[in-house]
Design goal:
Chain A: It comes from Penicillium atrosanguineum. The complex is a heterodimer of chains A (362) and B (193). By secondary structure, chain A is mainly beta. Chain A contains one helix and 28 strands. Classes of the chains: A mainly beta (362), B mainly alpha (193).
Chain lengths: 362, 193
């Protein structure tokens, strides 16, 4: 495993990050703005700022094919940004919510995106040609608390959502005229808008922080504030799942997770380093950290006598103990696939509260 | 109307689908055991005491944790807390690690470890004198609707201090075995003990 590429962008938290499909542009949510970085050599340099939100930007996503950027913020608005010769042009999206927007993701078809919010609903947004604007439909019914995270099924119709009511749910977001009728799957056959295809609750019931569909879309994984990862294999529509496996770990809670193939999950969170889980329908387990701590960038250095006395003189201690041994120096918020082919992830990126974006090679 | 300070209006109360009336029961998993009463808990306490007297500390602790009244009423929970603490106090320090490995290593051990961690925190929040949890109700603040198991700390004098040190010893040994994840689960889990 090659050493991770660390990009320390600034000294404030990164709520979310997204790479363009050519990996040359990196969008990072920083306070009320989104900053765009361009790759130059092996560094990223600030090239543009998307200004428009009035409160903290909570999430950002770049559509891989169209290059459009969608952002959402605590000011209850979402913008779709399009590149024009005169710069990035925002289009306001009518979300019709009365609480902060918390999370946004493009559907794989890039025709729609979903915005989670504190208003106990999900706005599914699509472009209406006739009126030339983005409009939204609400997924509302059984949600009892803030939506913290969302993930799209590969068919662009099913949407998984995690909430602070400790439930992970799978909804249908089928919109006539936009979506093609999806193939029947274990999640459901007929899927009108707001069909609930699954509702899952852990025994230890923490807030759900991250959800993800497996590459085939036939399994769902979610992680919550109870330091566990749960994998669900649905059996048939309206039936209890074929298997629901809970891996409770000895770690601090995990915030975000991605699948690598059908038998591996990578997750990271409050322990500031990524972990690998592996398994199948018969059982899952934690394999270990993906961090190579012996030669890690922040690892313990050889302490020279000079260094030791200097530390004692300056700080009254022999060693610097304010630095973590992990690459990230604070909680990881987002894990995203960086390079994947057919669901196999060969590298992934993480960003966190320490202002770093790290690209890991598996 | 101009006299109203709009910032002080609780808008949630005016919302027909208010989250103020959040149904907490919906957060409990379907696998919750049958409700128990305090007399059930007292019967279990007798069984556990017998095991402890017979020298089977590991069996006593395992029985106590497996029969935790997660779905019971407050009274049953208090009786059972006293039982668990009695077991914990009855095990010598030198034996703690061995007993823990036996109880938390086997099948379903992770569940038992989480359950024990809940009891350690509950014991620490309500210890007051030799009566243990029995007199806790009158002195410690009420829990807030079952959302949290962590109540106001009440450092009693006399026997309370000794009980606290026993619990802290157990806590240290248990964290060695189960990591911080178990502590986090005490906070999230709605199946209170």
């Amino acid at each position: 495993m090659a050493a991770p590429q660390v990009h320390h962008l600034f000294h404030s938290p990164i709520a979310d990050h997204s790479f363009s499909s050519d990996k040359q542009t990196l969008a990072v949510a920083r306070e009320n703005n989104v900053e765009l970085y361009q790759s130059s050599g092996n560094k990223f340099t600030l090239s543009d700022e998307l200004k428009g939100h009035e409160k903290t930007v909570t999430s950002v996503d770049i559509a891989p094919n169209s290059g459009r950027i969608v952002t959402c913020s605590q000011d209850r608005n979402a913008y779709v940004w399009e590149q024009t010769p005169s710069g990035w042009k925002p289009t306001l999206v009518l979300l019709r919510i009365n609480r902060a927007a918390t999370f946004v993701r493009w559907s794989p078809s890039e025709q729609k995106f979903a915005v989670g919010s504190g208003a106990r609903l999900i706005s599914v947004c699509y472009f209406e040609e006739e009126n030339d604007w983005w409009i939204s439909k609400h997924l509302k019914k059984p949600i009892r608390s803030t939506i913290t995270t969302l993930a799209w099924h590969p068919n662009s119709v099913l949407l998984a959502a995690g909430s602070t009511d400790s439930h992970a749910r799978v909804f249908s977001s089928f919109i006539k005229g936009i979506d093609t009728r999806p193939e029947p799957s274990a999640w459901g056959e007929r899927l009108p808008f707001n069909t609930i295809c699954g509702e899952f609750l852990n025994d230890s019931a923490g807030w759900i922080q991250g959800v993800a569909f497996s590459p085939s879309g036939n399994a769902l994984a979610f992680t919550g504030h109870d330091s566990s990862v749960t994998v669900v294999y649905p059996s048939a529509p309206e039936q209890p799942p074929r298997a629901m496996l809970n891996i409770s770990t000895r770690l601090l809670p995990l915030n975000s997770l991605i699948w690598n193939g059908e038998n591996e999950i990578i997750a990271a969170g409050h322990d500031c380093e990524p972990f690998r889980f592996s398994g199948d329908e018969n059982g899952w387990q934690l394999v270990g950290s993906l961090e190579n701590k012996d030669s890690g960038a922040g690892g313990a250095r050889e302490e020279s006598a000079l260094n030791m006395f200097r530390q004692m003189d300056l700080k009254g201690q022999t060693q610097v103990d304010t630095k973590l041994k992990s690459t990230h120096q604070n909680t990881v918020n987002t894990v995203r696939a960086f390079d994947e082919t057919n669901g196999q992830v060969s590298s992934f990126s993480t960003s966190g509260v320490d202002g770093r974006v790290v690209v890991w090679t598996i | 109307m101009s006299q109203i300070n709009y910032r002080t209006i609780n808008v949630d109360q005016l919302d027909p689908e208010s989250s103020v009336n959040f149904p907490m029961e919906t957060l409990l998993p379907a696998t919750l055991p049958q409700p128990e009463t305090s007399s059930d808990a007292a019967n279990i306490a007798n069984q556990v005491r017998q095991l402890l007297r017979g020298g089977d500390a590991e069996g006593a602790l395992r029985t106590a944790l497996d029969t935790a009244p997660l779905g019971g009423d407050d009274r049953a929970k208090e009786v059972h807390l006293a039982t668990v603490i009695e077991v914990l106090q009855g095990i010598r320090q030198a034996e703690m690690a061995r007993v823990l490995e036996g109880v938390c290593g086997a099948d379903g051990g992770a569940e038992r470890a989480d359950c024990l961690m809940k009891y350690i925190y509950k014991g620490m929040s309500s210890s007051s004198g030799p009566g243990g949890a029995k007199s806790a109700k009158s002195v410690s603040p009420q829990s807030t609707g079952g959302f949290s198991q962590i109540q106001g700390r009440n450092l009693g004098e006399g026997g309370g201090g000794q009980q606290m040190s026993v619990l802290l010893n157990w806590h240290e040994k248990l964290v060695d075995l189960t990591g911080t994840g178990s502590i986090v689960r005490v906070m999230t889990d709605r199946r209170t003990v």
